[in-house]
Amino acid sequence: MLPQQFLNNLEKPQGKNPGFGTFPFTVILIGLEFLMDREFSCPCTPGLNMTLIIFIFLGPALLALTVLMFIRRPCRRKSQNSAELFLFCLIPPSLWMFLLLFEGKYVACGLAHWEGDYILDEKLQVKWCKPTGVMGTKVNATDLLELTEKITFFSRLSALALLSVLCISVLIVVICSDCKSRTLEQQDEPTRQTSLSGSEVEAH
């Protein structure tokens, strides 16, 4: 009885604002990224680096999206609200991706294809996998550090691009939704006036 009642409560519309519910997840993900940023250490092992970063990127993002989709159920709403609800469900996962990309070090860790020790370069203030052991004659530590810097730069650039796309998408959906609602209200207004006029005539 209680589980069924719990599911029914979740399926009810959670407020009039389609963005309702995204704010708590956004705050939680920001806090999680802050904590992870302090404790993160790249394993600096080829293969394992990429696997770890993929799970870091997708795990919390998919969890937030799954819970929001379960709560909001955009496909069960009216067709004019489905796209808007779905877009707002994508905000927390997209923000999580933005935070990780903007840090830069996560992508740099995932693309590190050499073994080493994860340290902070005091001069450049960049965390990277400092190579250890025997390296090839054509590649040295300086080249790998420069590669890490480039990866970090392009990671942050892609984060800003993602944020721009998200903001533009939200603006387009909100504007289109408001304009469509306004058009429907204007179309219904003559009908209301006609109904009121008919009621006044019958009253007289």
TrEMBL record:
Membrane topology: Multi-pass membrane protein
Location(s) in or outside the cell: Membrane
Primary subcellular site in the record, as a coarse category: membrane
Bilayer-crossing regions: 48-71, 83-102, 153-176
Keywords for the protein's UniProt record, in alphabetical order: Ion channel, Ion transport, Membrane, Transmembrane, Transmembrane helix, Transport
Lineage top rank: taxon: Eukaryota
One GO cellular component term noted in the UniProt record for this chain: plasma membrane
GO molecular function list: monoatomic cation channel activity
GO biological process: ATP export
Keyword flag Iron-sulfur: no
Similarity annotation: Belongs to the CALHM family.
Identification of the protein by name: Uncharacterized protein
